[in-house]
From TrEMBL:
This is Glucose-6-phosphate 3-dehydrogenase. Residues 132-281 form the GFO/IDH/MocA-like oxidoreductase domain. It comes from the Bacteria. The gene is ntdC_2. It holds the Pfam family GFO_IDH_MocA. Signal peptide: none annotated. Keywords: Oxidoreductase. GO terms for molecular function: glucose-6-phosphate 3-dehydrogenase activity; nucleotide binding. Its EC number is 1.1.1.361. Residues 4-118 form the Gfo/Idh/MocA-like oxidoreductase N-terminal domain.
Length: 384
């Protein structure tokens, strides 16, 4: 398979994660990166052994060697950077949320179609092998009719009022925070695995820290000493720390989702259960190689991620034998494997349906998110 040349915009946490996953493929080569200024870009390029760097992403888009651009920046930049990349004829992989609102997302979808460029949303959690296995179980009706779906996505990185990030500021992250940031992953994963769609919802949101303390200098500056009152400024917080959403699905199933970014002890735990008329399943992202299977008239069981035990869809994206655990970094690798094969083999020109999440999936999650915010504000159920 031919090598595809790649440019990365943004080198915070997720940018290097993309780079690592791409390098593991062998047929995607990261040749350039761009960041907020030339000095930052130069240092990151040296650290990551990348030959070319740019302090302005628009200069990188002029590089004719680059076929694909990954947008790994704060949320408010996703729309304009994706738009500029597509206008330059580049295929685009974007972090979620793909835009600040559905209107921007609809324009991005329109441009992608006009320019005939491949577009992908980094909903990587679909690519835990057991998630593809679950999807096939449900398609094979092993669970029977789905009756209920419940779960949560909980973290503790914003537990204290001194915890601060750009994600707390709506001008950078959007009107929603916890729902957009982690609830979108939960909803995408549930709709992907079950094949069901949410048709109605009712939300309850809470901001437990209406005022947070924003450090006046980078945290690293304070290494080795305690912060005092003069080291902070108080910032009003309007985005949600917590949300619980009641859900109704298009087959008549009911469900609920809770997201919480002030959940002490929960580092990054997505959990969901699907209850059918024959069986149930439960999955915890902090134990991603185990699938709980519930039965009424027989022993419950735990299926370990093992290619020899999984259905073909799960087996296809498992790289290692049973007992050799796969985790979060492997999900991006598996998603990018499907994406870059599609690009290399020009599936987009042959009319082939992508088997990875696209801008359409990103628009779906923005639509759900906007209606969850509206439901909480109006204190009522909303039909989609």
């Amino acid at each position: 398979m031919r090598k595809v040349k790649v440019g990365i915009i943004g080198t915070g946490f997720i940018g290097p994660a993309h780079i690592e996953a791409l390098r593991r493929l062998g047929y995607a080569e990261v040749v350039a990166l761009a960041d907020m200024n030339e000095e930052v870009a130069r240092k990151k390029a040296e650290l990551l052994s990348i030959g070319k760097y740019y302090g302005d992403y628009r200069e990188m888009l002029k590089d004719t060697e680059i076929e694909v651009v990954h947008i790994c920046t704060p949320n408010h930049l996703h729309y304009i950077m994706s738009k500029d990349a597509m206008e330059a004829g580049k295929h685009v992989v974007c972090e979620k949320p793909m835009a600040m609102n559905t209107a921007e997302a609809e324009e991005m979808i329109k441009i992608a179609k006009e320019k005939q460029v491949v577009n992908a949303l980094h909903f990587n959690l679909r690519f835990y092998p057991l998630m593809h296995h679950v999807k096939m179980m449900i398609e094979n009706e092993e669970l029977g009719k789905i009756l209920a779906i419940n779960g949560s996505y909980q973290q503790d990185w914003l537990l204290y009022d001194t915890d601060f990030s750009w994600r707390l500021q709506p001008e950078f992250s959007g009107e929603s925070r916890a729902i957009a940031d982690i609830g979108s992953h939960w909803m995408d994963l549930v709709e992907f695995t079950t094949g069901l769609k949410v048709t109605e919802l009712c939300s309850d949101l809470a901001t437990f820290h209406p005022i947070r303390k924003k450090p006046l200098k980078p945290i690293e500056t304070y290494s080795g000493k305690s912060l005092s009152a003069e080291d902070y400024e108080e910032i009003e917080i309007t985005t949600e720390d917590y949300a619980t959403v009641l859900l109704r699905f298009n087959n008549g199933a009911h469900g609920s989702m809770t997201v919480n970014q002030v959940a002490a002890g929960r580092k990054n735990r997505l959990y969901f259960e699907v209850y059918g008329t024959k069986k149930a399943i439960g999955w915890d992202s902090e134990r991603p190689n185990e699938l709980w299977i519930g039965r009424r008239d027989a022993d419950n069981g735990i299926l370990l991620r093992d290619p020899s035990l999984m259905l073909p869809a799960g087996r296809e994206i498992a790289s290692f034998p049973g007992g050799h655990n796969e985790g979060f970094p492997d999900t991006s690798k598996q998603m990018f494997a499907k994406l870059y094969r599609y690009i290399s083999e020009k599936g987009y020109l042959k009319g082939e349906t992508p088997d990875f999440p696209t801008f359409e999936d990103g628009h779906r999650e923005l639509l759900l998110c906007e209606n969850m915010i509206k439901s909480a504000r109006d204190e009522k159920w909303i039909k989609l």
